[in-house]
Design brief:
217 residues; mainly alpha; 2 domains; three-stranded antiparallel β-sheet; two-stranded antiparallel sheet
Length: 217
């Protein structure tokens, strides 16, 4: 991989993170610059990107545990009430013969949030260590994490549909359990973590003579 290409920072240029407009950076670090096109404040790198991402990752890990252990759905009928977690719902779908749906629910509700957290930990740790390895692969991984974030609410969608259908028919009462709140929070927090991470930090080590810890975070 060639490393002799000049970067925007070396050329004194800044990019707006809203509209993508390129502008000349201020001569002094004390001056702020607003995008000449949309007026958004511009900066070389997101402020406190790594520390903010680490804090959001820690919050996501803490929320992931109750999201999988606490009831996701509470069903009440004439025969009694039943509480189901994500995994008990997956097991029920598998045993009832709906193994394709069980696979989708397990992957989207259990594996995707977990893999997102692991990927964010890897990206943040490697950027903090200013690693120069697998730069293109890490950039693609970040784009993938950012893309799949919006498709991680499958359980919430299923519960919403079940609540509407069952209560409409008057057969039983279905309510979202406490895990639904925790699960939704995991999805939102990981999305914010991906947004707070600055992917430009992945490529910054190429402009350094020797790898070192970032002083702009």
């Amino acid at each position: 991989m060639r490393t002799d290409y000049p970067t925007a920072r070396q050329l004194g240029l800044m990019s707006c993170h809203v509209c993508g407009q390129l502008a000349q950076a201020p001569d002094t670090t004390n001056r702020s610059l607003r995008c000449p096109r949309c007026g958004t404040p511009m900066h070389m790198r997101k402020h406190a990107s790594l520390s903010t991402t680490w804090a959001l990752i820690a919050a996501a890990i803490l929320l992931y545990v109750p999201a999988n252990l606490m009831p996701m759905m509470v069903t009440a009928s004439l025969l009694g009430s039943q509480e189901d977690t994500i995994m008990s719902g997956v097991v029920f779908l598998w045993q009832s013969g709906s193994w394709p749906l069980a696979t989708v629910v397990f992957f989207a509700s259990v594996m995707v949030p977990l893999l997102k957290i692991i990927a964010l930990i890897y990206l943040t740790a490697s950027a903090q260590r200013r690693s120069r390895h697998n730069l293109i692969q890490r950039t693609r991984l970040y784009r993938l994490v950012e893309f799949v974030g919006r498709w991680s609410m499958l359980d919430i969608y299923v519960i919403t549909i079940l609540v509407a259908l069952v209560q409409f028919q008057g057969l039983a009462t279905i309510q979202a359990g406490p895990a639904a709140v925790a699960f939704g929070a995991v999805v939102v927090v990981t999305m914010f973590a991906a947004m707070s991470f600055d992917p430009r930090l992945i490529w910054d080590p190429l402009s350094d003579p020797t790898p070192r810890r970032p002083d702009h975070d």
